[in-house]
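This section describes the prediction task in plain terms. A model, or a person checking by hand, is given the sequence of a single protein chain and must write out its three-dimensional structure as a string of tokens. No templates, partner chains or ligands are provided. The sample shown here is typical of the held-out split.
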Amino acid sequence: MNIDAEVTPEARNYLLSLLAKQEVPGMAARVYVEKGGTQQAETCLAFCPPGEESREDVRKDFDDLTLYFEAASVPYLQEMEIGLHGEGSLQTLTIKAPNSKKPAKPPKTFTLSQDCEALRVPYGNSVTLPEGASVSITQALGGSFTVNYEGNLYRLSPEVTRKLGFQSDVILFEPPEDGQISEQQCWDAMRLVYDPEIPVNVVSLGLIYKLEIDPQSQSVRVEMTLTSPGCGMGDIIAGDVKGKLLQVPHVEDSQVDIVFDPPWSYDSLDEEARLELGLI
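The expected answer:
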């Protein structure tokens, strides 16, 4: 993974001076983006003592200055520039990161930078895709990827894709002013969970049968089904629903139950799903 970043000579000398004042041999700096791909994105620069960098970080040397770039932030830090503003004691670093607020788009094919835990689709069995494997993305929705490797489909979880430096479909909810769980936000969160084989979310597929909100315990309970009782990815999809609901403000607990009564059918598809699948 490469990073397109520049540091002006003035900013490099200023940073080297700051690092030297820490009196820690080998002190470097680390760059990362909080809430990348959103309007709330903030680009941050922090001291990085030897050994505290992550093994997934991307290292780049600017002469005798070493910077580490957080892997998950790399897509948002492309074309960034660190400069220096002001004179004398009023000098301050400036960071221009034009892509920090833009949703990151993954490439169609890429090489795995590390061994990756994956689930084979549609069976759901766990496998390890080896470092150096070349994979092609067939679907990148809801933060997870479905990739093709040697003719088989595998699902990479959002946690794995973030470690690889990718992020997609990030959504940040504003906490409701009344301090209550928003039903609409719960539905919006579940719309970020997709079937790993087709680009349609579980809400549009008609897999969500019931949503119950308990304001007293700040918990959410969902009843959902699967397109087939034999779907090996059922527990994974249900886990994704649970995880997305826990990102909704004021939700302290979520429960997802899989049911098969009534059984799912194509009649459950909403108009968006029918259009995506070419049924209308």
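For orientation: The CA atoms of residues 137 and 147 lie 4 Å apart.
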